[in-house]
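Notebook B, p. 112. Complex prediction, attempt 2.
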Amino acid sequence: MKILIDLLRYNREFLLGSICIAIILALVVASFFAPYDEMMTYVVIPDMPPSAEYWLGTNSRGQDLFWQLAASMRNTLMFGVVVALVSRVIAIAVGLVSGYLGGRVDQVIMAINDTLNALPNIPILLLLVFVLRDQMSWPILAVTAALLGWQHDSRLIRSVALSLRNREFTRHAVFSGMRTGKILWREHLPYVMPIVFYTTMNNLIWAIGLEVTLSILGFSDINRPTIGGMIYWANAHSAMVAGIWWWIAVPMVFVVILFLGLFMLAMSVNEYIDPRSRLARMGA
Amino acid sequence: MRFLKTVAVAAVATLLALPAIAQDFIAGIPRNEALIIQGPTAQNADWFNIWAPGGGATTNGAQQLSADTFWFINPEGGANPWQNALATEPPIYNADFTEMTVKLRQGVYWSDGVEFTADDVVYTVQTLIDHPGMNWAAAFGVNVESVEAPDRDTVVFKLKAPNSRFHALFTVRWNAAWIMPKHIFEKVEDPLAYNFNPPVSLSAYVLHSYDKAGNWTIWKLRDDWQRTTIGMDWGQPQVKYVVYRAAGNPEARVIEQRNHNLDVINDITPEGMFSIMKDNPSAAAWLSGFPFAHPDPTLPSVLFNTKKAPFDNKDVRWALALLIDIRAVALGSYRGAANLSALATPPTGSAPDDYFVPMQDWLTNFELDTGTRKIKPYNPNIAEELAKMVRPQWGDQIPTDPERLKRTFGFGWWKQDVQAATELLQKAGFTKQGNRWMKPDGTPFTIRVQVEGDAIPTLARAGTAIAQQWSQAGIDAKVDVAGPTNGQRLGTGDFETAIFWTIETWGGHPDLSFFLDSYHSEFIKPVGEIQPPRNLQRWEDPRLDEIIERNRTVAFDAPEVKQLGQDFLKLAVEEMPMIPLMAYNKFAPFDTTYWTNYPSIDNPYSASGPFWSNIRYMVVSLKAATP
Amino acid sequence: MHGFLIYLTKRVGQFLFVVFTGVTLAFLIAHFSPVDPIEQTVALLTNFGSTDPRSVELLRQSLRELYGTDGSLLEQYFTFWSRVLTGDFGPSLSAFPTPVSTVIGRALPWTVGLLTLATLIAWTLGNLLGALAGYFRNNRALKAVGVFVMSMQPIPTYIVGLTLIIVFGYLWPVLPISGGAQLNLEPGFTWEYVSSVLVHGTLPALTLVCVGLGGWFISMRSLVSNIVTEDHVVYAELAGVPGRKVFSQYVARNAMLPQVTGLALTLGHVFGGAVIVEFVFNYPGVGKLLIAGIYAGDYSLVLGVTTIAIIAVAAAMLVIDVLYPLIDPRVKLG
């Protein structure tokens, strides 16, 4: 707790990041108190620019953009977080093990890793959406995306782990009889944490970008409000050329806020858990 | 940071230099001699053989500008919708419709200087029959016993069975069987594998150049344009070059037209159309005021899969129709710019006079038995109600003349009547628990509403509005975006309800056989197998078969055709196998910067859809704009 | 030298394995696609024209024979491999009878050109700025650049593209917004054609650079800011090594390793990024081809594109792997 307060007081990035994330979280919380059913259309006057009555304006489907945004943020975040969590677990496990063991095992794992990585994501996802069709709900999509989205990061983690393998402290640990799992968990994981943090960022961006891409092509449940879904409907109504700019600007601005927030938090937290401070404590 | 400054200065300098590098849109062709039309992206741009299946390349001008056949029907109706092209007169049948004679025009030449004769026709039909993989081959194989040319200007078809609509194969509404150049194809070993490049033209334009990647195709007016049917009937065309080009997504199309790089647009969103009509002084449209749209002779409807319970019950189908507030659907799909139809035929072309006006009384007096009482569900004032809704936004642009209003917004539709729907559902054995409808077997009533999605956004929007209304009434309705699998799922019956069309008409002719013939029960396949096009609802009714069989034995222009058409429309109202919604309104603005005299509701001399072969009459009628 | 040969052999073997597995997987997935190419063609032919129901069945029959979709999965699989090995993916179903290799061959140069250029620009610029931002952590201008680049990055490619179209095609119409070159221009190494291609490629490339820049910037900055506090850098600084040398020799070089790995993977991921940009700008590349192929159910085309993609990615990785030891001597051969 004290650490948190100190961070807020002395680290401007942490403060700004927290504010951004707080805004987003407030939206998510607000989404549970929406006065309208988020799926309903034509509940308010369409095409109203942002005003005191409608803070973020209304869209051509007669929906209040504020409440649409709230629900979309909740759904999109949920998707992104599930993708990021699942793919992080896989990426870290594969990357550390492969990099630590090296040799033949490393080659086999990386061969599989590269094979999966070599498959272009977008066509595969599109094909899967075709195949699963009605059964394709967002959790399934999230898990599928996670299964496609870890190879890049595990390779990065592995390249760091590979160089850690030849470091002295690893050898010390091995000679002192530490179990492999423990070495990876206690000694190597802290080193890859910075990578994990910024790849989580990238992964979230990637996942949401994926959601947007699929939605723009019309391959998602278009009635479930998401950031991509908002843009899909805005496109379906030519919002850009029709002058309803706020319909596209709102999801864009808030996605930017979300990512700036995440980025700044990750950076400041990164500084705080800098592995060298731990290293110093362990006396290696 | 000096580095950053350098970058910033360089960026600004580049930006300022941009106008200097602007290039002509088309290289080497004066813009005021070219008409630019929105085309498809052709996967196989090298392919000009429109008689062999060739995926997409046929609609980038080949069938519109270089092909010809016996007859054309103007889908807009107009004063004289029937147009003789290669034939000099309408088809001549014998008494029992087993023989059709066609008289051909003289003095028509292919673009390589060879004269067109009856031999070309005979060769075409024979070649298509001999090569089953070719387009129209199957239709000829099924129908034609023999084809002969007694002299160079006459062709006689002997048919295997009576068929009073055989000439439809040679009558263009979108397209039809085109005539092949015998002197080219007879030298080809396999006409299926021949790319016909460069194509020899039988019409007024000939290929000038094309992009191998399929993004554009340019056609040039023939020097000997007089020696074509167009030259003979329509005089000298002013458009010298016709450019078919792929123009990207709807927003890009709006921008391209505003920059005067796209004269004819196939379709954009209603909002895009409104923005063009508001901001672009040089824009023109089918209707000069709201809703600007052009109604295609196609009828988007709520299709029911009548082989799936509970949609096999007409009371359920009627209940679902009465739960719809059509005004909300019109607003949601087309921003009010919809041309509604309660009858199962598009309210376009000649249909208003053939069917809608004569049947108003019948519709107004139509009674529906809800199980507890009889109601008259028809609302003939829907046009006025729609006009009232959009007048605040569009003011004077909305006509006040009631007749004009009806032809713009539709003659009428069903009143939303939740009470009657409730009674109908109860009659069908449904029960209401709290706010939810339960099927007779006690499970919740759920409906999947299938829509195509992005390629047809207005219908996806209509589906969303309808699903919402059903949900509000206590039915768990969900929209299902099928995307590219839409056609297949409709074909195999893998849907419950769908927003799509199974009715398309000639537009300019009262005969409904264009779609109706395939509604006969002999063509119905079990669910799971692929249903032939059109009757995707798999609607089966002995009375329907009777009408179809009778229509087959009546001549195309006989007065009884209209009577049979009315019988069909009445049956479709009673049975409600699909809920007709509206004409397929297309938002297709024209740019008048370089060309004028586009067709409009007041001058409906030709179709204007870029992919319709009938557009050729528009191309040759355009006048150069005088600045 | 001997060690390097063994290393090379192993990497080539891995390359072949990647290609084999990837192509097999892609083949299987493509065949699970419920979009039936024959029905798509039938629909194309019957959607608008007048058709006799009896004829459609006959048409379907003959198409099935033409397209060669008969035979068991295994037979089709072997046929496919023999085609891949001879560089012949059979006829494209949606562009029948044009061979898939011809269709892809036309589109490939556009995509490769656009993506190579855009990716290299984004990579160089992103890494340079990122490294500077990580090294000079208190520079205000760099911080501002960082915020700008960061806020650009999460914006979906589609929106960036559309915004550029609105700005440079609508509000201030100075750049072409669709196509690869002017209409009615013969391809060739003429000044007219090349300049037309460059002008038409500006907005698509700019979109990709805008979207790609941020990723490199972020990862480079955090890598550098980690390395800066590492012992050898601190020693170097204390030992009075000039700042420029510390930056290039001690910091940037070490940070390059993961970034080069990343570049290899990104260069291979050409297709994912291309899809939306080519879709928005109607650019005649492979991405647009892929979308069209998927929509048309043209699985010989989809498979062709996917196979090319897999081989390209594997090849890019092979090249980077071979160059790896040159950059980071700590990685032992073997």
